[in-house]
Amino acid sequence: MLDLLRRLSIALIVGVCIVLLFVSGTQAKAEERANAVKWSSPIKGTITDTFGTRSGKHKGIDIAAPEGTIIQSVQEGLVTKSYYSDTYGHVVFIHHPEGYETVYAHLSKRSVSETAKVEKGQEIGIIGNTGVSRGTHLHFEVHKEKWTYDKKNAVDPFLMVAANKIETVPVLSQPASAEVKNPAAITVKKGDTLWGLSKAYGLSVEALKGLNGLTLDSLAIGQRLIVKEQAKSKTYTVKKGDTLFSIADEFQVSVQQLKKENRLKSEAIFPYQNLKISNHSSSSE
What we know:
The protein is α+β, with helices and mostly antiparallel strands. About 25% of the residues lie in helices and about 25% in strands.
């Protein structure tokens, strides 16, 4: 009888421990979800690439938005790094109370310095196209504890950020060309290839590469491509608020073409400056 009672007592204790472990684990997950709700989006824009793409090498999400859009800290924290990287371009790292480190890359400008304390929603920089990047966008990463070179601690940002605040890009089965009849330039969308676009616009792959000064066959989502030559040359006087990106979009040319034709070393322009906008065939990139 005593042996039976001992067995029953042990079984009861084990059962209680299992229940406590389950409750503790459930509570921890609930707390993590609660933390996720408290985080905000770093920018209002359109997601052009998600976590885990490029054979698993893409350890963040890409969010495209207009030039000049402000980047915000998703949560309060401490700036651990703020510098220029050959790959990330202008980049800011922030460590947060929840034990995560966030990375904001390819900025055109950084608004915070290392060791600075930031609040949730505080401006930390301006969206850009610096480093290894094609097209204006924010590359945003989240790492458990801290960022490492091998990015072994990377987690999907959607687990921490309120994803419903960011617009997602639909997967297109056809090139973006179908959206506008006979456009002079298009923005590369997911699924686009040089071969597919060349067929859509009646160009050879080599001709399409020549128009855009491309040396490789690969394309990047958000990249601007010239698909038709412009009719004539003109001179444009820069107005207040203009950017190279807005002018390129207005005249359906590439930013690279504008910089090449006007001998610009950077993307900075100023009011009343005259820019040459010529027939693409008259310039070589």
